[in-house]
NmrA family NAD(P)-binding protein
Amino acid sequence: MSSRILVTGATGKLGKLVTSRLIKNGDRIRVLTRRPDEARRLWGGSVEIAGGDVGNPQSLRASLQSIDRVFLLSPISESLAAHQIALIDAAADASVQHIVKISGSSWTIENAHRSRAGAAHSKVEAYLFGRGLSHAVIRPNAWMQVSLAPVVAAALAGRDLPGRYGGAAVSFIDFNDIADVAVHALRAGLHVSEPLVLTGGKAFTTSDIAGLVSTILRRPVGIDTQAAASSPGHDDAFATLAVPEFGALIAEGLAAPVTDTVERILGRKPVSVKRFLEQQLAPARSARETAEGDLQWQ
Ligand SMILES: NC(=O)c1ccc[n+]([C@@H]2O[C@H](COP(=O)([O-])OP(=O)(O)OC[C@H]3O[C@@H](n4cnc5c(N)ncnc54)[C@H](OP(=O)(O)O)[C@@H]3O)[C@@H](O)[C@H]2O)c1
């Protein structure tokens, strides 16, 4: 009989990818969500839905009954550490065999005194390690789908790209690679004492990215150094303070190092920034090609 897996954060950006992959693999999945209707809309009867809140001990206990493995993810907030520690305790009580935790980027944890999100994840990592449960901690670098969203939006709108991070390079990672590694770690019961530090295959500055966008769209692309990065606002006060801390650390070049973890675990290269941008900018590119084709016929 296959393991039964509890997925937390399943209705969020990364959790959705992890859940879909596990469903495709035929795994037995339960998702813990405060929004059961959303989970039903996403997956119908393919998952068991535990409606509840991580902050509520009763819903935690119920969600962990007969569970073998847990995918642990919480959004950045004041309660991240308390929620995840409570979940680890409840999982140990329920005899869960293995936990895969999505942590913060390595440079936030190594600089936890300058990153409140890094400090919260660091506390959970230490706790998980101390409880002695089989586990894998995944520390992904900045996600392309989040960090490059303002760049893609500007390129699609025909604007100059927002100049960010003071020209520092970043080895962005595609969140599909993170999901693939997480699913592997869950299904294989991968126990590692060191965190899995995931990055893309190469680090890019905004100027490098402008060059790629220019090649893809076949037009000159500038950088607006005055433009504040239009990152989406946060309802959560903790996250509102955490995000500028990320920007300051990235501007020091701390998010530039490249690891080979994705390739080592998945046996393939990480998704490249070029491929990501080609996919994201496909609508603008085909609109341009259509317009050029129309001109040729005139
Ligand atoms: N973005 C990056 O570049 C980056 C880099 C490194 C690490 N990370 C880490 O990735 C994580 C964020 O992942 P994400 O962006 O995929 O998250 P997200 O899209 O914000 O989704 C958050 C999920 O958490 C669930 N949730 C929130 N509070 C809950 C509660 N009290 N009880 C039960 N479920 C709750 C939500 O479910 P419901 O609303 O359905 O309950 C939702 O599924 C953070 O820990 C962050 O540190 C991100």
Residues 8-15, 32-35, 38, 53-55, 73-76, 102, 104-105, 117, 140, 142-143, 146-147 surround NAP (CB under 6 Å). Residues 4-141+174-198 form a domain with the Rossmann fold fold (CATH 3.40.50.720). Residues 116-131 form the longest helix (16 residues). The radius of gyration is 20 Å.
